Amino acid sequence: MTTPDVLAHVTDLLPDGRRNLRFVVIGAGVSGILAVIRLRERGFEDVTVYEKADRLGGTWRENRYPGVACDVPSVLYSYSFAPNPEWSHRFSSGAEIQAYLEKVAADFDVERSILYGEEVVRAVHDGHRWHLRTHTGRTDEADVVIAATGVFHHPFVPGLDGLDDFAGQVLHTAKWDKSQPLTGKRVGIVGTGSSAVQTVGAIVDEVSALILFQRTAQWILPQDNPAYTDEEKAVFRSDPAVQIRLHSEVSELFAEGFANAVVDADSPALTKIAQMCEENLLTVTDPDLRARLTPDHRAACKRLIVAEDFYGAIQRPNASLVSEAIERIEAGGVRTVDRALHDLDVLVLATGFQVDRFLRPMEVVGPTGVKLSETWAERPIAYLSMTVPGLPNLFMVNGPNGPVGNFSLIEVAELQMEYSLQLVDSIAAGEFRLVTPSVEATETHEKARVQAAGKTVWATGCDSWYLDDRGVPMAWPWSFHEFQRRMAAPDLSAYVLTN
Ligand SMILES: Cc1cc2nc3c(=O)[nH]c(=O)nc-3n(C[C@H](O)[C@H](O)[C@H](O)COP(=O)(O)OP(=O)(O)OC[C@H]3O[C@@H](n4cnc5c(N)ncnc54)[C@H](O)[C@@H]3O)c2cc1C
User: Fold this and answer.
1) CA-based nearest residue to 241, from 91, 101, 100, 83
2) Atom 42, ligand 1: which residue's CA is nearest?
3) How far, in Å, from the CA of 418 to the mean position of ligand 1?
4) pTM of the prediction?
5) CB of 411 closer than 6 angstroms to any ligand 1 atom
6) What gap in Å lies between CA 208 and CA 210, rounded to an integer?
7) Hey, which of 2, 248, 320, 388 has its CA 20 to 30 A from 178?
8) Ligand 1, closest atom to CA 53?
């Protein structure tokens, strides 16, 4: 398109007189699917989603390790507008969530907007529109870009000496190869986060030997995960309002009992959580094992793990916990610093993600030459986790320093989307053409965020993926209610609005 064509397109009108904007959504996970549904609801049909993989689902498409599950209750880890009466359990497996997302996408006819196998590698704004390019060379333009590229998307592979020398199979939990059965094999798991704990519980009865290599012991909150009965499902099917009501009740319970607790290190709710974790640990009968499983930090300082029967699994006769540090990987297994060699057929890296990537490695350049790679050279910062100075009409969902941890990120994405859509509505109404957060508002927000982060439980002296290179938690440090309040309506004085 030539420049005049582009401008002509921008001034196209919808039947109701609003500007007919063109949208590109990057990523077809929970957030990208949501973006398409919400945009269409508002009458915006000119939407293309670019998804680098060959299926939608994001996290739940990628993480297929045994035991993968959500630790937020199913009724809350669902779109508020798409209750699912078929959830089998109070907490859902990853496969069930993937099936749910596929069903929602089918019900709302989302697939027709998605182009698979297209990774957006470059987005440049020329002062009028975004110009995008994918790795296949496809180009596109958009008035508004919604970046739904995820937080837990780039697996973290630790720099273990000798990893390439291992003669057996190496698996990362985020890149699981289901074609390789583990039955009867000697399996080592590196890591003690949620993915490791879920994998241990799921495979211990199948493998001949399971060794968990622990660098840091973790607190584990016990989880009761009953199946929904046929009667309950029948009620959910016949009256969707029941699940919608449960969604808001559980949301409130979660906000009060958990989300608000972790941002106040002295809260009574956090004390209660700590007690529950301590009582759970007492189910480990061997004093030596219990001592090695006892964390040296406060409960919820690292992302709290919620698991049904981890302690039962690690006490099985074929399971063992190795708490000596790993020295190197050898052809036959893992050598620890005490010189012991732990023979293995399979090595599982349950080592999580690079959680500071967001849009990157995409090259993003604003109209005045602002480059995301430079703006974020030290660390990613965004106004209210959603927008970046100098990059107009670019809205992130689940962007940097937002509510992460034991929340429903679906709920977070819905709130962020509603906020961004209010700005989009103003663009469509012709109130302004471009919107970017001001540098001042972004810096003020970030300063307040860093200050408040110091009072959270994440800053009470443990090392975790919440912390940036300065040791500051990369998360929303205020209550969930405060997040809901801030998401209710944009404060236009925080933005630079251009016509
Ligand atoms: C094991 C595990 C357990 C979890 N448990 C919970 C939980 O209990 N509760 C909770 O709230 N959250 C949980 N999460 C977080 C989970 O990531 C979010 O809940 C949610 O799925 C994020 O959805 P998203 O669409 O924002 O991002 P993602 O699901 O990461 O989707 C991003 C999509 O963007 C695509 N993409 C990225 N870059 C590009 C590009 N440049 N071009 C094209 N496509 C691109 C990716 O391929 C992907 O499909 C868990 C995550 C993991 C890994």
Assistant:
1) 83
2) 119
3) 19
4) 0.95
5) no
6) 7
7) 320
8) 47
